[in-house]
């Protein structure tokens, strides 16, 4: 079946603008994760959804970042008033169950804030 | 929170040699330790994982060892091939808050 997909693959925006990044998880996966990966670094945990609810949002850096998963499938990461420091690859992953298990990653969205 | 350190940051080996990457973690409650391979422009892909009730796991040319007392775990790749060249990440998790190391860029020279 299809893997995790993310759109857009690339997003260029100007400082101060609002952006939305979309993630389509693997069908049937109840857990969904967002990570941020800066150049030369490992993925940095942002938020984890179990179903429709954000079970852990401790990784969101500040209140400009917000994520939703209204129907327990597709998720959108929203960034308000973007800053140049937000430039990174945003990765989405999904897994089957609620415990720590293999996470399947999408290809990421490369966000560039000018 | 959990802190994962990984080394070396770069590793170059000759085809056919072995490669070893090491990680340490700080949270003794972590119980799941995956290793991911990431190729350029792609998301990380799981290559092997180990849980805290096991000390060693092997899958063909890849093995992982876990020392819970010392809080470190290692990835071993034997008979390396050029297609093993990539960035490898270790991670540690106790619930679903997975924390990754900074990565090791492995280059296998033919």
Question: Overview of this structure, please?
Answer:
The complex is a heterodimer of chains A (114) and B (110). With 114 residues, chain A is mainly β. Chain A is 0% helix and 48% strand. Chain A has no helices and eleven strands. In chain A, strands 2, 4, 5, 6, 9, 10 and 11 form a seven-stranded mixed β-sheet that branches. In chain A, strands 1-3-8-7 form a four-stranded antiparallel β-sheet, with no helix packed on it. Chain A is globular and about 40 Å long. The N and C termini of chain A lie far apart (37 Å). The mean pLDDT of chain A is 94. Chain B is mainly beta and 110 residues long. In chain B, strands 2, 4, 5, 9, 10 and 11 form a six-stranded mixed β-sheet that branches. A five-stranded antiparallel β-sheet of chain B has the order 1-3-8-7-6, with no helix packed on it. Chain B is globular, with a radius of gyration of 13 Å. Chain B contains no helices and eleven strands. Chains A and B meet through strand 4, strand 5, strand 9 and strand 10 of A and strand 4, strand 5 and strand 10 of B.
Which key phrases capture this entry?
heterodimer, A: 114 residues, mainly beta, 7-stranded mixed β-sheet, 4-stranded antiparallel β-sheet, 11 strands, B: 110 residues, 6-stranded mixed β-sheet, 5-stranded antiparallel β-sheet
Instruction: Round the mean pLDDT of chain B to the nearest integer and report it.
Output: 95
Instruction: Report on the biggest sheet of chain A.
Output: 7 strands, mixed
Structural class of chain A: mainly beta
Mean pLDDT of chain A: 94
Structural class per helix/strand content of chain B?
A: mainly beta
Classify the helix fraction of chain B into a percent range: under 10%
The radius of gyration of chain B is 13 Å
- Estimated helix fraction of chain A: under 10%
The ordered H/E elements of chain B are: EEEEEEEEEEE
Helix and strand sequence of chain A:
EEEEEEEEEEE
Biggest interface, chains and residue tallies: A-B, 30 and 27 residues
> Rough shape of chain B?
globular
Poorly predicted runs of chain A are: none
Oligomeric state of shown chains: heterodimer
Q: What's the number of helices of chain A?
A: 0
**End-to-end CA span of chain A:** 37 Å
* Count of helical stretches of chain B: 0
